[in-house]
Write a structure and sequence with these properties.
This protein has 138 residues and is mainly alpha-helical. It folds into two domains: 58 residues, no CATH class; 58 residues.
């Protein structure tokens, strides 16, 4: 479990389950970061998990800029808006499409109001309608 206490949307704290492989990869990343000898990159107990080469924590603006550069370099046209935030929406949609219950999605995304989370289930309902229509059931 990963406890998010800083940098989360709305400043909300939450606990997120992580697959064992992800935990192993994060541990390897932290070990590599510590081996650089640069004190700015050492992982203190309350230090940011992901940092830039200068020790500054990653933020949404940096990730947006990085994603835009990567999409441009790959020839993909990036959508308008905040790309890092779009990843969050993609995650919420994927959870809904896989049938994850609304309260679980709400907790994982850190929404205090279930109406905020319902945008994912509303989209999920439209996918169900389209599927039933395609199957000749509507």
């Amino acid at each position: 479990m990963l406890r998010i206490t800083a940098g989360a949307k709305g400043g909300k704290h939450r606990t997120v389950p992580l697959p064992r492989a992800t935990v192993n990869n994060v541990d390897a990343y932290l070990a590599e970061r510590a081996a650089t000898g640069d004190d700015r990159l050492k992982a203190a107990p309350r230090a940011p998990l992901f940092v830039r080469h200068n020790g500054a924590p990653l933020n949404q603006q940096f990730v947006d800029s990085l994603l835009r550069r990567l999409t441009a370099a790959s020839g993909v046209t990036a959508p308008e808006g905040a790309m890092a935030h779009a990843l969050r929406h993609s995650y919420g949609m994927e959870l809904a499409l896989r049938g994850v219950p609304l309260p679980v999605i709400q907790q994982l995304l850190g929404h205090s109001d279930p109406r905020t989370t319902s945008i994912y289930t509303a989209a999920h309902a439209s996918d169900l309608t389209a599927t039933l229509h395609d199957a000749g059931l509507l």
